[in-house]
């Protein structure tokens, strides 16, 4: 994805050095269509510079700060020396994330996605989440609910969610569900307690997964799972509910799993 407009002064941009002259460096801006900037020799590095090529090379990817934009003369003045190491690494990370998201758009809608559809979806993501990558990340974590306030079609949302859940790795994902447990047994309290222990996995939960079961309101209990990815979280949630159901029904009780809370009070 490339922006069709112009960068703003003070913005950090990613580009590739495509020409080096005695007076400075020309940079092709990777995030903007047909935009090229100039880093004057005085903005390449701090201190006196004997040879620009000692600091940059043709083909090198750089992060620069936009100093000035003159649309009339089609000129963008850039600085390399005004970008510190932290800013550089963060900008490169963001840029690589957007490249991933661009690839996910192709996976979701095919190689032949037209520019108009791409732009419509991208603009919705930018308005709602700030970036393409953030939109896919939210879709991976929260599914279609994350895109409910956008103007995307149901088919577009389904394609995005499916692609996100297959491809996006997030630091962690939290999912929750509820299970209603009842027991007519005279020792019903013990039956329910055993079912809850079963739901918690009896200590046999993967190390990277956090799972807890809490009382919401009779007969409802909440199962909360935190895991590195959506598939693992959903799998562990389902397994937890199944364990509780198997335990309580074996003793003549009933179990019902649902995603939304029903009790008024916790």
Key descriptive features of the protein:
single chain, 266 residues, alpha+beta, 5-stranded mixed β-barrel, 4-stranded antiparallel sheet, 6 helices, 9 strands, 25% strand
Your description of this structure?
The protein is an alpha+beta fold. It has helices spanning 85-109, 115-129, 132-142, 154-167, 188-199, 230-250; strands at residues 12-21, 24-29, 36-40, 61-70, 75-79, 173-182, 210-217, 220-227, 254-258. The strands form two sheets. A five-stranded mixed barrel has the order 1-2-3-5-4. Strand 7 and strand 8 (220-227) form a beta hairpin. It is elongated and about 90 Å long.
In summary, what is this structure?
This protein has helices at 85-109, 115-129, 132-142, 154-167, 188-199, 230-250, and strands spanning 12-21, 24-29, 36-40, 61-70, 75-79, 173-182, 210-217, 220-227, 254-258. The protein is an alpha+beta fold and 266 residues long.
- N-to-C series of helices and strands: EEEEEHHHHEHEEHE
**Strand proportion:** 25-35%
Instruction: Give the overall shape.
Output: elongated
Pick out the low-confidence regions: none
Q: So how many helices?
A: 6
Largest sheet: 5 strands, mixed, barrel
Overall mean pLDDT: 92
Rg over CA atoms, rounded to whole Å, is 27 Å
Estimated helix fraction: 25-40%
Measured distance between first and last alpha carbons: 46 Å
Number of strands: 9
SS content category = alpha+beta
Which sequence of strands runs across the widest sheet? 1-2-3-5-4
């Amino acid at each position: 994805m490339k922006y069709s407009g112009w960068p703003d002064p003070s913005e950090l941009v990613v580009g590739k050095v495509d020409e080096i002259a005695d007076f400075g460096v020309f940079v092709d801006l990777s995030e903007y269509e047909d935009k090229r900037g100039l880093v004057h020799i005085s903005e390449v590095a701090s201190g006196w510079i004997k040879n620009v090529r000692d600091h940059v090379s043709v083909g090198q990817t750089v992060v620069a700060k936009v100093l000035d934009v003159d649309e009339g003369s089609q000129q963008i003045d850039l600085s390399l020396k005004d970008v510190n190491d932290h800013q550089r690494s963060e900008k490169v990370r963001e840029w690589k994330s957007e490249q991933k998201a661009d690839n996910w758009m192709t996976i979701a809608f095919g190689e032949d996605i037209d520019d108009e559809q791409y732009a419509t979806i991208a603009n919705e993501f930018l308005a709602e989440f700030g970036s393409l990558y953030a939109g896919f990340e939210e879709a991976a974590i929260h599914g279609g609910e994350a895109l409910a306030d956008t103007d995307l079609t149901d088919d577009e949302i389904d394609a995005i969610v499916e692609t996100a859940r297959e491809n996006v790795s997030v630091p962690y994902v939290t999912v929750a569900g509820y299970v209603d447990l009842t027991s007519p047994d005279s020792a019903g309290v013990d039956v329910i307690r055993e079912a809850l222990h079963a739901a918690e996995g009896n200590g046999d939960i993967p190390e990277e997964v956090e799972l807890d079961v809490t009382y919401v309101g009779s007969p409802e209990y909440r199962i909360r799972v935190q895991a590195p990815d959506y598939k693992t979280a959903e799998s562990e949630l389902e397994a937890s509910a199944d364990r509780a159901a198997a335990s309580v029904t074996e003793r003549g009780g009933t179990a019902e799993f649902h995603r939304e809370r029903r009790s008024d009070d916790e």
